[in-house]
Amino acid sequence: MLETATKSIVAWPGKAQAHTSARNPGVPFDLAWLDGLRVNQSAVARRASTLGTRRAVKKDAQAAWLLKAITCIDLTTLNGDDTPGRVERLCAKARRPLRDDLLDSLGMAPASITTGAVCVYHRYVKTAVHALQGSGIPVAAVSTGFPAGLNPHALKLREIEASVADGAAEIDIVVTREHVLTGNWKALYDEMRDFRAACGDAHVKAILATGDIRTLSNVAKASMICMMAGADFIKTSTGKEGVNATLDVSLVMVRMIREYLARTGVLIGFKPAGGVSTAKSVLEYQILMKEELGREWLEPELFRIGASSLLSDIERQLEHHVSGRYSAFNRHPVA
């Protein structure tokens, strides 16, 4: 029964909620935390390749996992041709990601789930906040010169502050790749610390742009430094790099989250972004979180997926689960 499967995996309140977990206070800069930090690339590749084969999620269980995935989506529009109307339509989809008749067929109450957040440029934060009023869905703003992250530092801080003032509850910042590529870890720490302070009460997600920082060792070290400096989430990509989220870099990042938890007792969230566009791929990321970090990391408090087209494929898969037929993509506008 889907109801039984749903109860085991889907444990959300009726609506998306603002963060209630404790913030990451960070720790003093200590380069010794990076001593001996090495990544076995072959072992990472072997482990990542098994994520889609070790655990079979089928039928009712798969439908339940996909319903859970919807609640963890940061539904995103980050295009040069964005308009207030597009953002408002995106927010309407975030409020009602699935049709009521489909939810009813799955044994769920009408309008019982929402996406985890809506993610937009600063220009549209006020539009999104207004459109989501009363829903409990937080607005996330990309900031700090997204996607390149090459704006002057003072301007980056002002952009963060402006988005928070407009109502953003989450800020997705871009680190300066140069600091990682040159091994200037103190500069990365100081930058991230400033971003954390500028966010105030808003949660901060640190985008590492893993496709640009070249090596898995850099990914591991940058992850640890950003968490040390107070990042509440670490995020793979802007979605604008040549290579975005992959299971390999995600495995390295969640292992660093596990290491940081062991050292500090602080839970850090993870957000893959860019390229997670199918129901099959999102299940692999959910399995990664479950096996590497545990059940708690299947909730939107600690797991988000940055996506724009993913929702349409999940909706198609759920419709197939109910009816045995796949609908056309053009039946799922905005998703």
Automatic annotation (TrEMBL):
<dbReference type="GO" id="GO:0005737">
    <property type="term" value="C:cytoplasm"/>
</dbReference>
<keyword id="KW-0456">Lyase</keyword>
<dbReference type="InterPro" id="IPR002915">
    <property type="entry name" value="DeoC/FbaB/LacD_aldolase"/>
</dbReference>
<dbReference type="InterPro" id="IPR013785">
    <property type="entry name" value="Aldolase_TIM"/>
</dbReference>
<dbReference type="GO" id="GO:0016052">
    <property type="term" value="P:carbohydrate catabolic process"/>
</dbReference>
<comment type="similarity">
    <text>Belongs to the DeoC/FbaB aldolase family. DeoC type 2 subfamily.</text>
</comment>
<dbReference type="InterPro" id="IPR011343">
    <property type="entry name" value="DeoC"/>
</dbReference>
<dbReference type="GO" id="GO:0009264">
    <property type="term" value="P:deoxyribonucleotide catabolic process"/>
</dbReference>
<keyword id="KW-0704">Schiff base</keyword>
<comment type="pathway">
    <text>Carbohydrate degradation; 2-deoxy-D-ribose 1-phosphate degradation; D-glyceraldehyde 3-phosphate and acetaldehyde from 2-deoxy-alpha-D-ribose 1-phosphate: step 2/2.</text>
</comment>
<dbReference type="Pfam" id="PF01791">
    <property type="entry name" value="DeoC"/>
</dbReference>
<protein>
    <recommendedName>
        <fullName>Deoxyribose-phosphate aldolase</fullName>
        <ecNumber>4.1.2.4</ecNumber>
    </recommendedName>
</protein>
<dbReference type="GO" id="GO:0004139">
    <property type="term" value="F:deoxyribose-phosphate aldolase activity"/>
</dbReference>
<keyword id="KW-0614">Plasmid</keyword>
